């Protein structure tokens, strides 16, 4: 139901998004049946497609041409997809979006090469855009995303990390790709530098808010709503903002510390989830998300009033209150 509500916010883009969906299917098509099956397995599991949406909306501030816009929207979603396939190997995750992951359905080797294949397809698409500047922005973003993944591995199971550690991680893990979606959508449609900069910052702030809400939902949603066990991030050793805020309580800190040092039973996992869910950590994390959301909306204030501006604003409000 929540995904339906989100899609209604940008229902005006449905014809273009349907076109991009078909392009994504064509992009992962190859002569290998195994690669086709593994790639389509993730693609057909669904997703919010929020990155293509931001590419298209940003393009509405310039000279919008869907045949050009899709050459940016498709690779941005492909890069996101490739990162998910690789993440599931690193995190040893069996379930994503309520379905078996590629690595669970096949194995780690197939998953790693499928991720590499999808990433290569993304690069193939973007080279049709004759713009070294655009290529530079995207490659720099991909480098930072990789750095973020390495930082996440280094920070795993470290309960005593600080807020800056967390923020630098989610910046690279999520915010930069959304930020680049907005900036590249603006640049490829020929907006001026100032407009592109406001859209880049909007994407960054909304990306930070989006990830914090994601980390909150890991504790406040049910297994069924998430399509995976609640508290999965914590079980995998990822210390998120609700945990950082909740750990100030000595009793909670002790529970979390002990829980990170062993493999949890389902009963123990649910105790951790319930403890965080009932702690002030949830409301404190929401307050941080709200601050990023407010900054995102301020960036839109600098841009011309338009249907695209209005839709971006609605999506921003929705992200701040989303329940999936």
Structure description:
- The chain is mainly α.
- It is 74% helix and 1% strand.
- It has helices spanning 2-9, 14-27, 33-43, 50-59, 66-90, 102-105, 108-126, 132-155, 163-188, 193-220, 223-226, 232-235, 241-246, 250-259, 266-277, 281-301, 307-321, and strands at 95-96, 99-100.
- A two-stranded antiparallel ribbon has the order 1-2.
- Helix 3 packs across helix 7, helix 5 (66-90) packs antiparallel against helix 9 (163-188) and helix 10 (193-220) packs parallel to helix 17.
- The relative contact order is 0.11.
Low-pLDDT segments: none
How would a crystallographer describe the biggest sheet?
2 strands, antiparallel
**Structural class of the secondary elements?**
mainly alpha
Strand percent estimate: under 5%
Query: What would the principal axes of the Cα set say about the shape?
Result: globular
Radius of gyration: 19 Å
**Tally of DSSP helical segments:** 17
Order of helices and strands: HHHHHEEHHHHHHHHHHHH
Determine the mean pLDDT: 93
Distance between the termini: 9 Å
Helix amount: over 70%
Q: Strand arrangement, largest sheet?
A: 1-2
**DSSP strand tally:** 2
Provide a concise account of the structure shown:
With 324 residues, the chain is mostly helical. It has helices spanning 2-9, 14-27, 33-43, 50-59, 66-90, 102-105, 108-126, 132-155, 163-188, 193-220, 223-226, 232-235, 241-246, 250-259, 266-277, 281-301, 307-321; strands spanning 95-96, 99-100.
